[in-house]
Amino acid sequence: PTVRLEDYRLSDHLIDRVELDVRLDPHDTRVTATLALRPNPAGRAAAPLVLDGDDLTLLALECDGQAVAPDAYRADASGLTLHRPPQRPFTLRIETRLDPTANTKLMGLYRSSGVYCTQCEADGFRRITYFLDRPDVLAVYTTRIEADRDSAPVLLGNGNPVEAGDVPGTGRHYAVWHDPLPKPAYLFALVGGRLDRVAKSFTTMEGRAVEIAVYVEPGKGDRAAYALDAVERSMAWDETAFGRAYDLDVFNVVAVSDFNMGAMENKGLNIFNDKFVLASPETATDADYAAIEAIIAHEYFHNWSGNRVTCRDWFQLCLKEGLTVFRDQEFSSDMRSRAVHRIAEVRNLRARQFVEDAGPLAHPVRPKQYAEINNFYTATVYEKGAEIVRMLRTLIGEPAFRAGMDRYFADNDGTAATVEDFLSAFEAVTGRDLSSFAEWYERPGTPRVAVSGTYDPAARTYRLAFRQTRPGAGADAPPLVIPVRVGLVGAEGPLDGATSGRVEAGVFVLEAAEDALTFENVADEPVPSPFRGFSAPVRVESPLDAAARLTLLRHDPDSFNRWEAAQRVALGLMAAQARGEASEDAGADAFVAALDAFLDTEALRDPAFAAQILTLPGEGELADEIGTDTDPDAIFSARQALRRRLGAGLRERLTRLRETLAEPAGAAFSPDAASAGRRALRNAALDLIAAADAEAGTALAQAQIEAATNMTDRLAGLATLALLPGEAREAALTAFAGRYADEPLVLDKWFAIQAMIPEDGTVTRIRRLQTHPAFAMTNPNRVRSLIGSFSLANPTQFNRPDGAGFDLLAEAVLAIDGANPQLAARLMTAFGPWRRLEPGRRAAAESVLRRIVATPALSRDVTDIATRSLAG
Ligand code: ARG
Ligand code: ZN
């Protein structure tokens, strides 16, 4: 059943208040919902009341205190219809039962390692009780939770705690929670279990005392300190950066070990995948710390962008997700290095969103239809959605952007809004017409912008021409509004004297299909630097040669474009080699020399940035650059060759850098950005040295593992060894598994590293690991570590010409689908880029996809991804 944006209709009924009484039991949980309903004056008159349900068993139904006659309603597992509901406000009392232990979908109310928890977005609340499970029905909730006191001493709900006590003579106890702010059902949550608590208080700018608490598995409280601190920093930041204060007396975060996604922003009770809460130097890498900080912030920021202002319907998902990703990216940029963070954002965008946008699963940031909404929590909705918000800020400037955000929150607080409501807040404060800009939400595909320059030495002018095109867009498609942050760079540095009347505060706005800028007062032929800071999510086509790009690496005042210049040169070298074009030795030499010069002056000034410069574009990006008929083996070899070349050419400097950057013995670990940056550069150097010299790489990696005082260095050593076949690798893997036998989240890293080994034996190794006692097909983190890493980050083995990699993924998908369709569908997305493969592999992928679609009893989730993958 396809749901279409154009079919949106207001609900015929509204729910003002919800009282829930949830009596938790492992297999027989009873839920009594008392709903204060009324006809929606804006809906259809005398409409039946149609409540959503999923896997529910109805036990009792009363309307205004009277049992409802059997012929007055129809109820089954998937819904409850009251044929002729009262034409005035009325109260429905619905008693249902459910089995949380049998809930393997991890949607609705389920148990994770014995802890009762919930996930209701997008449509899980209907698995708890019959309801108008749509985001534009907002109600005030009071929840009474009752459970066995021994197995569930902690009982948490949305809002503020009201009351708690024992149920005498039963061994059970209860807690009542009240959430004063109206919310849609997808923000409902409850938790019951045995959990440790760490807490601190925070006073908001409005003077409200808030108790912040993080709940984790017993004994792991010390690993929650970083997350707790991140909540506090997020609260403070949202006050300063956006004027948004928290609005309840408590803010709770709970970590659970079985969770389909990263985390969930339930009102006052965020529930997290424990991978994004738990951290200690011994178990978490710098990347883990950064991800925890970002996701804690993301979920907290949803309190305003998502909860106070929610979405009218699921087509508006980017309204909360794109905006909230933008906000968490800004937060991380302020907490860390803005330039380095921007590079990480763009790497991620290109690796996931550009690939999605170029393949059969491409969709607009605001989709027009869906068969399964849970398949639209995508890089396009999230990451491209965030880029749209960032472009808006670039277009109107920071002060107007902040004013527009204030206006958006003020105008839409307590309501379910649309993308139009968002844009109109900015139109109101700027007086601008943003209707052309809105086109960014409407069409899939990554735009291309061709940039070319002409220098006129006599007139001392430089003309920079832009031409935008969109893949698959018809001739009628209006051009996009594209902010181009731009400048010129000369052989000796930025050309500040050169100006153009159409560049305002460094930004040129490309609004037509073609346009050009003229810079005056240009003394020498310059190198153009367009799309500074990646000012728009486009592919830039520019005829610049490597020498010109290396000038940007040296002199561009914009760090992003310095990095971009190095990436483009590397991509050019690798793509030529992968396509079998004559290998360009001189080009590689010039690149090595440029990197050497760069490291000489800057490696120690900004190690994190230097590490980014030394990290070549990945195989996926190279495949994306080549575009069609790709051969993953040729791509892998080309990348290996360049890594080897850099490692050999920079060997001495990299070795010295590693020594200079070594942590002094006994230094305490700190996850801050500067320390992490030093580790990143040391480990980028290790990677290149090992690429050039396996023997030296092995010795260095072994020594690093031996001496490691933190997971970042230990894992980097192991990752280096993983690429070097031999006994040292196997011994290190065995030792690592022994050391962390009781640490599931660390074993995930061990699974992932092995899944990514780019060698023939990997499929066999993975099949063996699937029988490892620590592996479980029922745990999303385990599955993503082993199967997800393989299919997304091991291109040569996943795309094996014999199809064995595709088969492995297909088997896992089908094995998981019956229990957890969302997880299975997520895995399926790895097939997305299948059409760009060379014909042999393409045929192998297609036949596996066809086999999957033909499987009986396939979930809607997997069917949707598989059929779209084949159709696109
Ligand atoms: N709103 C959550 C977040 O981005 C994601 C929840 C998605 N869950 C799902 N089952 N689709 O923070
Ligand atoms: Zn989100």
Briefly, what is this?
It is built from 26 helices and 33 strands. It is α+β, with helices and mostly antiparallel strands and 872 residues long.
Structure commentary:
With 872 residues, the protein is α+β, with helices and mostly antiparallel strands. The chain has 26 helices and 33 strands. Helix 3 (317-335) packs antiparallel against helix 4 (338-358). The longest helix has 21 residues, at 338-358. It is globular. The mean pLDDT is 98. The chain binds arginine (ARG) and zinc ion (ZN). The site of zinc ion has 4 residues, from helix 3. Residues 226-439 form the Peptidase M1 membrane alanine aminopeptidase domain. It holds the Pfam family DUF3458_C. This is Aminopeptidase N. InterPro entries: Aminopeptidase_N-like_N, Aminopeptidase_N-like_N_sf, PepN_Ig-like_sf, Peptidase_M1, Peptidase_M1_dom, Peptidase_M1_pepN, Peptidase_M1_pepN_C, Peptidase_M1_pepN_C_sf. Belongs to the peptidase M1 family.
